[in-house]
Specification:
This protein is mainly beta. The chain has two domains: 110 residues, Immunoglobulins (Immunoglobulin-like); 91 residues, Immunoglobulins (Immunoglobulin-like). The protein has no helices and 17 strands. The protein is rod-shaped, with a radius of gyration of 25 Å. It comes from Nothoprocta pentlandii.
């Protein structure tokens, strides 16, 4: 299986998408046509014989092409840039006074965008109280991040499961996440809520006193 190329970046950063071809030092971009596409159908940037022949309003002023290794630079990246891209390179050869394009390579690369979530906000509300225990509703929420996160809870080093809900306008929009949990508190308890996404995590701890 062909190893899939991957690029990663955080919202606001500069990210380079690697292409499958490097132009040898004996030639220049003028000998090539280069197409960078997103989702196969959307042309991000295209060059033919050294001249830009196509650009995309959403990517205008945010993209650059390296004229040697054909890396597509996007700066600053947005959540909407998340997804699959393709680099298509054609070598232009002159045969009997006509230019014949020959496909050199055509390879996908996937861009994974991350947006940081807010520090989790943790609240504890006592619903009922008795001599034996307090019945407490715990809530943890975090917002504005990408991609869809996981939410974890730990009570005195013991993992607990949230009743979690996620809200997002679309698959390429920021997510808000909220976790609720009801528990019976019999002693002082240290509680931590963690939101994890794309290898990153944000955590908040709270001491619940009985």
């Amino acid at each position: 299986a062909v190893e899939k190329k991957v690029a990663k970046g955080k919202v606001g950063e500069k990210v380079g998408l690697p292409c499958c071809h490097e132009i040898p030092s004996t030639e220049s971009l003028r000998n090539y046509r280069v197409y960078w596409q997103k989702n196969i159908t959307e042309v991000v940037l295209a060059y033919a014989e050294g001249e830009k022949i196509s650009s995309n309003e959403r990517f205008d002023n945010r993209t650059q092409l390296n004229d040697r290794n054909l890396t597509l630079w996007i700066s600053p990246v947005e959540i909407l840039d998340n997804g699959p891209y393709q680099c298509i390179v054609q070598h232009l050869k002159v045969l009997q006074n006509s230019v014949v394009p020959n496909i050199v390579c055509d390879e996908p690369v996937t861009l994974y965008i991350t947006a940081d979530f807010s520090e989790p906000s943790v609240t504890a509300e006592v619903i009922t109280s008795s001599c034996e225990f307090d019945e407490v509703m715990l809530r943890c929420s975090s917002h504005g991040g990408f991609p869809k996160p996981q939410i974890f809870g730990v009570l005195n080093s013991r993992a607990v499961v949230w009743n979690a809900t996620w809200v997002s306008e679309s698959s390429n929009s920021p997510y808000n996440v909220t976790g609720n949990m009801q528990l019976n508190l019999t002693e002082d308890t240290n509680f931590t809520c963690s939101v994890e996404y794309n290898g990153f995590a944000k955590s908040t701890s709270l001491l619940l006193s009985r």
